[in-house]
Design goal:
This protein is mainly alpha-helical and 167 residues long. It contains 5 helices and 3 strands; from the N terminus they run H-E-E-E-H-H-H-H. It has one domain: Arc Repressor Mutant, subunit A. A hairpin with a 4-residue loop joins strand 2 and strand 3. Helix 1 packs parallel to helix 2, helix 2 crosses helix 4 and helix 4 runs antiparallel to helix 5.
Length: 167
């Protein structure tokens, strides 16, 4: 049986992150029914267990980025202070996207700090794919608020200049 060096590096990276999180009191659960997420109140990361080893590593890095932002209380408090009630306001959606970008960046920094080898092109591809999903979700949410149809396939078929979307 031929050994797969890439998988060995990936598994080694996963174990490094799990040890790092454990030292900081952050639990990790693998669950096939839940998409990957960080639960701030429980200090727990949940990773979908149906992912390939590479995607598991990438999502664990991203969710660890959320945990790092949580540990950097100043950043988390600043984001929370700006966050208004009413999930689908323009500002809240922008803050959500800002936090997602920061989480990807913190995950990348963590990989470098722990000297974890990963496929940077694949990591960036997944990051862009996820960020595009957040943008589509935000556009759909704002379109619903304006009672307009949003079609991500046709790109942005309405503009923010269509009127005020403030609360």
């Amino acid at each position: 049986m031929k050994r797969n060096k890439k998988n060995e590096f990936t598994l080694s990276g996963l174990f490094k992150i799990l040890r790092w999180l454990d030292k900081r009191g952050i639990a990790v659960e693998f669950n096939a029914r839940i998409s990957s997420e960080y639960r701030t109140s429980k200090r727990k990361i949940i990773i979908n267990s149906n992912l390939s080893p590479d995607k598991t590593l990438f999502y664990l890095l991203h969710e660890s980025g959320h945990a790092i932002l949580d540990l950097k209380k100043k950043v988390r408090d600043n984001l929370k202070r700006k966050f208004n009630k009413g999930l689908y306001t323009r500002q809240n959606l922008a803050l959500t996207i800002e936090e997602e970008v920061l989480a990807w960046q913190e995950g990348e920094k963590l990989a470098n700090r722990l000297r974890i080898w990963y496929d940077e092109k694949e990591f960036d591809r997944l990051k862009r794919e996820c960020l595009a999903t957040y943008l589509d979700f935000s556009a759909q949410s704002l379109a619903k608020k304006k009672k307009k149809k949003y079609n991500s396939k046709k790109n942005w078929n309405w503009t923010m200049d269509d009127g005020d979307l403030s609360d």
